[in-house]
Design goal:
6 helices, globular
Length: 204
Amino acid sequence: MPLIPEEPQIHESVPGPRATPAPGRAASTPRPVPGPGPRPATSRPGRPGPQRGPSATPSQRGPRDAAKSKAPAASTPQIQLIPASAEGALDAAEEAVDLLLDSGRAPHDILVLTTGDQHPWAAHELSFGEASYWAQHDAGDDVFYLDAAATERAAGRPVVVVAVNGGPDDAAARALPAAMTRAGVLLIVCGDPQRINALVGVGA
C-alpha cells in the first residue's frame, strides 16, 4: 500500500527553525500526530543535551489502567508522509521535530534518521569519537540523530522521523522497514512520495 501524504493542517503561528521554505518543498509542513501520552518538551531540536532528570513513568496507575495500557504496545505505529525534495527532506524533518516538541512530545521520545548526508549535529558529535556519540544515544536524554545505515545499533523510540535526503536506493529501502520496527507510536517519513513508494515496493 502506498504511503499517502496526510492532509495538511496549516498553523501559521507555529514556530520553526526557518522562516523560508526549502527549495522544492511546500511552504508549510503538515502537523505530525504526536501519538498518545506526550510529555512536556524540555529542549529544542538540533541542540541535544542532558535533561534535569529521568522522565516520569506512567506506571503509577491502578491494575485496571495498567492492563488497558498494554493493548496499544502491540499495535503498528501510525505512518505520516511529509512530501519534500531530497534537498528539503532534512529541513522537513527538523520542522516535524519542532512541531512534535511544540505539541508536548518529550525530546528523548524522538529518533531522527537520515538516508543521505548526516544531520549536522550527528556529524559534529561524531567528530569527538563514536564512544561519546553512542553514549548520548544510550543515555536517551534527548532527540538523537543517526545515519540510517547504523539503525541496527539504535534502540526503539516512540517517534521515528526519517529524512530521505539522498543516498543509494538500497540503503534508503532498508532504512524504512528498520525505522518502522523502531517506532513505537509514530513514523514520519520526509521525502519525495514517488521515490518512497518505489522504495517500499509500490510502482510509481
